[in-house]
């Protein structure tokens, strides 16, 4: 399963790393790639829950605008 998470508020590599680490800590996540310029993260794994993804990004200090599969 792959989800693309569109995120507002990331402005530097530190931001991208904070989002990446937060998403990697979720159960079922195998791989995370953050695209700072594209303002998105691609999350790959099993049983990915949109609510948990939003909470992880929010806990890192950023806002999820949209999640697509």
From TrEMBL:
Alphabetical keyword list: Metal-binding
InterPro entries reported for this sequence: Cu-bd, Heavy-metal-associated_CS, HMA_dom, HMA_dom_sf
Annotated HMA domain residues: 1-65
Alphabetized GO MF terms: copper ion binding
Highest taxon listed in the record's lineage: Bacteria
PROSITE patterns xref list: HMA_1 (PS01047), HMA_2 (PS50846)
GO biological process, one term: copper ion transport
Name recorded for this polypeptide: Copper chaperone
Species in which this protein is naturally found: Acidilutibacter cellobiosedens
Taxonomic lineage: Bacteria, Bacillati, Bacillota, Tissierellia, Tissierellales
